[in-house]
What we know:
4-stranded antiparallel β-sheet; single chain; 10 helices
Amino acid sequence: xxxxxxxxxxxxxxxxxIWNVLTADEKRVVIENFTLLNFKRNQIIYAEKETPEFLxxxxxxxxxxxxxxxxxxxxxxRLIRPIQYFGxxxxxxxxxxxxxxxxxENSVVGTIPMKVVSDLIDKNRQLAWFFIHELSHNLGRSxxxxxxxxxxxxxxxxxESLALLIDNYGFEDDGETLDIYMSRExxxxxxxMTTSNAIRTLSAFVNEKIIVVDGRRVKILxxxxxxxxxxxx
Length: 233
């Protein structure tokens, strides 16, 4: 069991989230049922068709939600950053997971049994509204992403993915290098394109001096132009 002090430190960034809408007694229930788990890079957190049992909260690291497509090809549908909750939609829908979650690097994830969460919701309307807001926000982002991935050209899709990585994970201390290392395949899966197209488009961005690529490291040289390409597709 995690201590009150440790849990408060863990979710100090959860400014408008679960912790702030709970009573003292409800916080104790969360603490008593909160478990920290460690996942290695590329380790599956949960898989498609599994039964949802937990509310997951990424504490440290990076997680991708994905769905298997035709021929086993992955489509990355969402990137999780600290401190974000995930994995609860399927429980509320009373269905198995329709997507999976994988750690993109060594990560620490907290879990609370969904039965505990459900009991808390029954007693706390503010908590119910928190999840309604979360699910509605994610649905809106999904709607936007569907349009962008189907209507934007390849350059716009890849530029949008790089902009998303900036917004989600930021930069390293140099203020230019993305604070996430992604394979070409993952960038392709995030951008709804083949790996070969992702490689060619990255090379084009390098030639245009928009980015610099060094293995899995990507340095953003011209963020305004990158976002302009993302916006106009």
